[in-house]
Q: What sequence folds into this?
């Protein structure tokens, strides 16, 4: 890999439970306009933005070909645009490899989602399952998560107080992030006494309905240095799919995440992730995933992440900061979550995270996931050096 790629600009909306006064095109233009202003870039001129990657979903947008309305907004009229219908970190990954391939020099990556438009997220994620063997028993992402939570928590005899501590930490961090949706702090007691939704998950264990968008501009090394004084370099990335049927997977673990992380670490030259990284942003739609994903990323010993979180070792001012943005549990749309994690890494590595800034941060990890019980994972490592 002779040439490097960097994120040179980033913008995100505030995440909200319902952006009732905005169409999704307006959300997208809000962030696209900002990243263009940050760089002074235009579309389809020599040395300007020469490609686009968008992340959207037909079901959440309530239309087929959900990227069709994005064309003009991202400069793709008579130009290249690729759609990713997974977690948006995969869109960043796609934009990165497109530049590495030599086809492009500067790429615009945008993700959007208005979950509030759906009558039920569960009805949408229900459609992701096989119609013959899985839908008939009522599976959706929530019920799949509950099955995984039960398997993981039982395997290691993890008390509910430890998963609740992850919610408490994320909400504390969200209170320091002006873009976060749920900024009110909560206690372990509040989490444990919140409304039961799908055993063993309670209301505060589950990420809230959310609307929002994120945009980034990626550039080849020479252009990156021309466009910003503070490029955030992509050191490595990896992704992996697990088996489609839940019954074919060990739900108490995540093979696909371990594989994605190993690929990203190898490319980034990470030998031991805990000392080699300064912070991590993890996409966890449910509280137990905060623990399980940390362990599969090699940042905590199996079965031990909960104790570490409860002891405040992952607070932004702790031993190893996790989800300084507030994470998905403070509110990010399902599709946008991984890109929101990369956005926080961008801010941290540029020293622009405000009250939640991690001192001396040089390397950061972003994680995104899609599919039931973490079927697909993407991991990316960033650096400011």
A:
């Amino acid at each position: 890999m002779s040439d490097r790629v960097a994120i040179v600009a980033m913008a995100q909306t505030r995440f909200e439970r319902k952006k009732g006064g905005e169409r999704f095109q307006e959300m997208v233009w809000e962030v696209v306009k900002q990243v263009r202003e940050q760089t002074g870039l235009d579309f389809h001129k020599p040395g300007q933005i020469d490609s686009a990657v968008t992340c959207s979903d037909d079901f959440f947008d309530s239309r087929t070909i959900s990227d069709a309305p994005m064309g003009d907004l991202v400069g793709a009229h008579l130009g290249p645009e690729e759609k990713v219908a997974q977690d948006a970190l995969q869109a960043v990954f796609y934009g990165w490899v497109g530049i590495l391939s030599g086809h492009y020099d500067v790429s615009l990556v945008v993700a959007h989602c208005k979950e509030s438009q759906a009558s039920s997220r569960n009805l949408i994620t229900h459609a992701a399952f096989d119609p013959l063997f899985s839908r008939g028993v009522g599976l959706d992402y929530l019920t799949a998560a509950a099955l995984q939570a039960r398997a993981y928590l039982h395997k290691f005899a993890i008390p509910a107080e430890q998963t609740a501590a992850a919610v408490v930490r994320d909400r504390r961090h969200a209170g320091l992030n002006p873009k976060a949706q749920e900024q009110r702090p909560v206690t372990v007691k509040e989490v444990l006494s919140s409304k039961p939704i799908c055993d063993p998950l309670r209301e505060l264990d589950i990420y809230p309905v959310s609307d929002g968008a994120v945009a980034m501009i990626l550039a080849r090394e020479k252009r990156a240095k021309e466009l910003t004084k503070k490029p955030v370099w992509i050191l490595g990335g990896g992704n992996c799919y697990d088996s489609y049927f839940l019954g074919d997977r060990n739900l108490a673990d995540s093979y696909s995440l371990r594989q994605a992380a190993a690929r990203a670490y190898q490319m980034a030259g990470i030998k031991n992730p805990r000392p080699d990284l300064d912070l991590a942003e993890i996409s966890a739609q449910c509280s137990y995933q905060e623990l399980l994903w940390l362990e599969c990323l090699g940042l905590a010993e199996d079965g031990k992440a909960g104790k570490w979180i409860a002891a405040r070792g992952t607070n932004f001012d702790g031993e190893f900061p996790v989800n300084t943005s507030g994470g998905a549990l403070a509110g990010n749309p399902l599709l946008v979550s991984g890109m929101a994690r990369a956005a926080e890494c961008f801010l941290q590595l540029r020293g622009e995270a405000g009250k939640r800034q991690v001192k001396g941060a040089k390397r950061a990890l972003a994680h995104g996931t899609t599919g039931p019980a973490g079927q697909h994972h993407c991991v990316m490592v960033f650096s400011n050096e």
